[in-house]
Structure formats: structure tokens, C-alpha cells
Amino acid sequence: MKVGELCARAEMSRQNFYKARKRRKRQAVDEQLVKTLVEAERRVQPRIGGFKLHRLLRPELAAAGVKMGRDRFFEVLKNQGLLLKRLPSGPRTTNSRHSLPVFTNLVKGFVPKAIHEVWVSDITYIRTGEGFLYLSMITDMHSRKIVGYHLSLSLEAQDSLKALEMALKQKPEDARPIHHSDRGSQYCSHEYVNRLRGAGMRISMTEENHCAENAMAERMNGILKQEYFLGHEFRTVPQARRAVDEAVHLYNTRRPHRALGCATPDQVHRAAA
Predict the structure, then answer these.
(1) Residue 129: inside a domain
(2) In sequence order, what are the beta bridge partners of 149?
(3) Structural domain range at position 9
(4) Are residues 56 and 153 in the same domain?
(5) Number of domains in the chain
(6) What pLDDT, on the 0 to 100 scale, is given for residue 121?
(7) In what order do the strands lie in the sheet with 202-205?
(8) pLDDT averaged over the chain?
(9) Half-sphere exposure (CA, 13 Å, Cβ side) for 184?
(10) Is there a single domain that holds both residue 43 and residue 153?
(11) Does the reported pTM lie above 0.70?
(12) Is position 59 within any domain?
């Protein structure tokens, strides 16, 4: 074999090696997201099985750009030690795990006429080469302004609380917005619910189709990912943090909104205040 052919083959082998390594790294990141989502759901439903989890989490995985069939999903559950163990037969002691609170949808069909009447909350996923990050956001339903946000390494309630605390700091003392969200474990947690009640806020949650019943929050996720490139994969966590800060600032202060008469969310919010 000629020297040129050997070099070409060596170069091809290197390219294949790096492609395979990148693919393995991406799969590891995807697997970590599945683990995080399953653990979060099992805080609410401790005995939910793999088949139901796959159906339940498929939209969230798709929103994060993760395509995963049922067989691969079960393989991840096995790898992460998340397959349910068979319960022993015979009598069992009472389960001391208390159900997390859920609330009625108070904003179905409601059209706010002023700022700080309704805040909608949601969490979306930001992909990096170092793993997934979780962006908690709170948006004022009237002005469409993002009034609170926090980018975190986990789906813990304490991280969503940081977005809430940001929103509460800019709220007038006498304002009592309804806080609307899906039934994710972060928003159902006692810590989060108690903070809302302590601020004198009423609590509203989706009841049936969480996407349709939290449509504004879902649209916000789409806008930031499609128009401000947060749907792309970032190399590092600091790079993603800078991109999120810039995206929120540009959305609030520079993006004309048709529903607002082509004003920006910040203009409408300040005028109403």
C-alpha cells in the first residue's frame, strides 16, 4: 500500500475516533438528563414505571433535543439503577411519604388587564457540552416581561425559588399576582408553595393538558430558543450563562411584540407601573 493511502486511512481513523467520542459524550449528557427527569418525577410518583415514564417525559426530552426510543430509555433506566424493584408480598407498613400539594387552574380563559395580575412559570433545558442546565423563568402575563429567571445545574426546588425571589424583588409591595405553573415537583414542593403563600400569592396549576394550559410559558421557551439561539449546544456552562443573560435582556428591552402593539415587554411593564 502506498504511503499516501496509509496517511489517508490514518486521517479517516482519527476522524472516526473523534466523531465516536463526541457521540458518546452526547449520549452521556442525554442519559444524565433522563436520570434527572425520572428522579424529579418519582418524587411525586415514587412507583411510576418505565413505560409510563417514557410516555410522560417524551415531550420534555423532545423539547431538549433528545430523541430516545423506548428500548434505549429502558437501557438508560437500567444503567442508572432506576428500574423499579418488585415489592415484597404480604402486608406493608404505611407509606410515610406525603403527597405534594396540587392546585386548581385559576387562569383558564383569564385575560389580565394589568401587570402583576398573573405570573406564569416554567422550566426549559439548555444543552452544553458539560451537561444540561435548567432555566427557570417567570413571565408577567400582561406585559410578557420575564420578571424572574435562574439558570441552574439541577431541577431542585431551591433553584426555581431563585427565579421566584428575583421576581418578588421587583414586585410592588401591595401586588398579589396569581402564580401559574405546571404540576412539576419544583412548584408543588412545600418549600416553593410556602414561599408563595408567604408572599400572599394565590397558586394556580395546570390540570389536564399542561402544554395548552401553560401556553404563554411554552411560547416563551420557543422564542428564546429559536430567536435567541438558546436551543443550540454551548461548549461550557459559563458560555451558556452569558447567552441566557443576553437573551433575556434583549427579549425584554429590544423585541417588539405584536400582542403589545409592537412595544417591548419592558416598555409596557414600565408604562403600566
Answers:
(1) yes
(2) 137
(3) 3-79
(4) no
(5) 2
(6) 95
(7) 146-152, 131-140, 118-128, 178-181, 202-205
(8) 86
(9) 25
(10) no
(11) yes
(12) yes
